[in-house]
């Protein structure tokens, strides 16, 4: 009996020690854990981590050299490129069909294992953001010009419909139950799309709490949306079921990307000013700014590797006035220094 009690006590002590270790780990601050300069000419926009395929997709628009650069998600070594992606802004991947799609004109459909082009898909508008909704098995190609969304079948690349969202779309998120939420940057709203009927069923007004939403993330389990805005510089948190605003929190300047990690219950937004804001969801009604991570100037878009809980960002060094004819466009009328393009990894 005494031996059994000793074993039980030891077990409790071990369990308590493990729990304390996990708590200490989760409490550690985020920081830049890896900086890899990969160079290459051209601009950049959205970055996308394919956690299942272990690849990192980075668009590099720039005239005849427009392409998607692809890296190993674990080593950040180059694994190839997808060429001829005119004016590319982002990439979406369907892990079931192993098909990827570039938000370019035309959209390039490619094999994610070989990176070989499968077909070019003519679309209307001017493709910008792109999003794969696993629940409806559809790819949403988003454009600031009407039609604001062109919807593709990821299996064969066929166009299944278009949607006029009533505004210029930026980032999208899904509840996994047939609804896709899309930030409308010029209307200060979030559009709610029925992914089956391809119709806008609601528009949530940010009610003056935030303007120019460029980043959007979602806690699908608790139906919470995180709309990250330019002016004022805020993360507006709202109920995805009815659009009611729960609260708003300050973020950095120049947001262009956001995400949510269900493993840590944290939302995050990346800003051009070189900050990554981490917001902790304590409960569906309680949120707080947990940290503002110093990243690097220009690192305005981000993506989450759900297997490692690391956040990836991209940026480059701005060119001085004397070198403005070199490098790639930086989105502010200037250009980047050649071969200064860098991947940042944020973690614990």
* CATH class categorisation: Mainly Beta
**CATH level-two architecture:** 7 Propeller
Identify the overall geometry: globular
CATH topology, anyone?
A: Methylamine Dehydrogenase, Chain H
Count of the domains = 1
- Supply the number of helical segments: 1
Structural class: mainly beta
Poorly predicted ranges (pLDDT <50, ≥5 residues)? 1-15, 21-25, 329-334
Main pleated-sheet profile:
4 strands, antiparallel
Give a count of the beta strands, DSSP E runs of length 2 or more: 28
Helix share, percent? under 10%
What is the CATH homologous superfamily assignment? YVTN repeat-like/Quinoprotein amine dehydrogenase
Task: Supply database-style keywords.
four-stranded antiparallel β-sheet, Methylamine Dehydrogenase, Chain H, 348 residues, globular, mainly beta
């Amino acid at each position: 009996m005494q031996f059994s009690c000793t074993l039980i006590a030891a077990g409790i002590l071990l369990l308590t020690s493990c729990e304390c270790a996990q708590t200490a780990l989760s409490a550690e601050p985020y920081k830049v854990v890896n900086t890899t300069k990969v160079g290459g000419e051209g601009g950049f926009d959205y970055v996308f981590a394919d956690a299942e395929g272990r690849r990192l997709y980075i668009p590099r628009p720039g005239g005849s050299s427009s392409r998607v650069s692809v890296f190993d998600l674990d080593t950040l070594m180059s694994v190839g490129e997808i060429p001829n992606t005119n004016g590319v802004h982002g990439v979406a991947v369907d892990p079931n069909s192993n098909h990827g799609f570039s938000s370019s004109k035309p959209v390039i459909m490619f094999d994610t294992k070989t990176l070989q082009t499968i077909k070019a898909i003519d679309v209307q508008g001017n493709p910008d953001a792109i999003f794969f909704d696993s629940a409806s098995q559809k790819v949403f190609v988003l454009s600031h010009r009407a039609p604001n969304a062109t919807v593709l079948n990821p299996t064969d690349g066929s166009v299944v419909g278009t949607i006029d969202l009533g505004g210029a779309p930026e980032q999208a998120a899904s509840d996994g139950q047939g609804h896709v939420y899309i930030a409308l940057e010029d209307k200060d709203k979030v559009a709610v799309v029925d992914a089956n009927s391809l119709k806008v069923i609601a528009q949530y007004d940010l009610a003056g709490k935030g303007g120019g939403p460029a980043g959007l993330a979602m806690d699908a389990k608790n139906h919470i949306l995180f709309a990250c805005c330019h002016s004022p510089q805020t993360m507006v948190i709202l109920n995805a079921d009815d659009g009611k605003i729960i609260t708003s929190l300050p973020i950095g300047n120049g947001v262009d990307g956001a995400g949510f990690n269900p493993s840590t219950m944290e939302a995050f937004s990346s800003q051009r000013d070189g900050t990554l804001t981490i917001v902790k969801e304590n409960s569906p009604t309680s949120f707080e700014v947990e940290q503002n991570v110093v990243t690097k100037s220009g690192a305005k878009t981000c993506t989450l590797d759900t297997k490692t809980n690391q956040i990836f960002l991209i940026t480059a060094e701005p060119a001085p006035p004397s070198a403005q004819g070199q490098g790639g466009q930086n989105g502010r009328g200037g250009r980047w220094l050649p071969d200064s393009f860098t991947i940042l990894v944020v973690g614990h």
